[in-house]
Write a structure and sequence with these properties.
Largest sheet: 5 strands, mixed
Distance between the termini: 21 Å
CATH topology of the largest domain: Rossmann fold
CATH architecture of the largest domain: 3-Layer(aba) Sandwich
Shape: globular
Order of helices and strands: HHHHEHEEEEHEHEHH
Oligomer: single chain
């Protein structure tokens, strides 16, 4: 390590106390919720505001209970948002890409199976896809699943598990679920709920030949890769800025400094 860097950090951390690693009692059952995408921003803001209100007004609260209540509130507003989005306002939220239908047509012509799995209700998806692709968008997909309840959809299937749901067919005429048992997944139908195990069983698809694109790491990508071996691709717009930042000279310099500091911390723990 460069002596000048070491002296600089030793000066900065003269009055800092270190807690030896061997004194930390790490618990495997500790749960930490990851809030790491744009969907989490309202949740983080609400958690912060409610917590600040409790603290300022000396209201006792239990953090875990607060988290569950806030999460429930956020989830309860999603169906309301779906109904608020008028089809006439879709251009305000979606940017049309003329290459998208061309790409999907290309996949169809080369005998690739294409599927859509979304947590959104059918009318919401239908309005968006008609704008993005056209009125015949459903002909480009072999399997369409709405209200899939991800990430529960991607959990290992068990009929005794509370999250287990069989596939249901969606009746376009009545805008309701049908009660009949689903044994095959057909191109001309819309399905609801279900599980990835059921999807693979009824389609006969080989897991290691499936590639799935999602936009939420923990809801769309983590379980499906670990449990079923699907190849996954993430559509994360924020990464563009992150990559630019990581490649900047300022960031690289800061990382080098942090690594030097971490080494000093590790050495301090080893000596205690």
């Amino acid at each position: 390590m460069n002596e000048m860097i070491e002296k600089k950090f030793l000066t900065l951390i003269t009055n800092v106390s270190f807690f030896p690693l061997h004194n930390q009692q790490l618990k495997e059952n500790v749960r930490m919720k990851q809030l790491n995408d744009l969907f989490s921003v309202p949740e983080m803001c609400l958690l912060s505001n409610v917590t600040e209100n409790f603290i300022q007004n000396n209201i006792p609260y239990y953090p875990e209970i607060l988290y569950h209540d806030v999460t429930s509130a956020i989830r309860s507003i999603h169906p309301v948002i779906h109904k608020m989005l008028d089809s006439q306002k879709i251009p305000d939220y979606l940017e049309k890409n003329e290459r998208l239908p061309v790409f999907l047509e290309h996949l169809r012509k080369h005998n690739k199976k294409v599927f859509l799995i979304t947590n959104s209700p059918f009318y919401f998806v239908d309005n968006g896809m008609k704008y993005m692709i056209g009125d015949d968008w459903r002909t480009l997909f072999d399997v369409i699943v709405v209200q899939a309840r991800k990430p529960s959809f991607f959990k290992k299937e068990s009929s005794f598990h509370l999250d287990y749901r069989p596939f249901r067919t969606f009746n376009l005429g009545s805008d309701r679920m049908n009660w009949n048992r689903v044994s095959t997944l057909d191109r001309d139908k819309i399905y609801m709920e279900g599980t990835v195990s059921g999807l693979l069983k009824m389609t006969g698809w080989n897991s290691n030949r499936v590639i799935y694109f999602g936009d939420q790491i923990y809801s769309d990508l983590a379980d499906i890769t670990l449990n079923f071996g699907w190849r996954t691709g993430a559509i994360i717009a924020e990464l563009e800025k992150e990559i630019e930042t990581h490649n900047s000279p300022e960031f690289k310099e800061a990382v080098s400094a942090l690594q030097a500091l971490q080494q000093l911390v590790d050495e301090g723990n080893e000596n205690n």
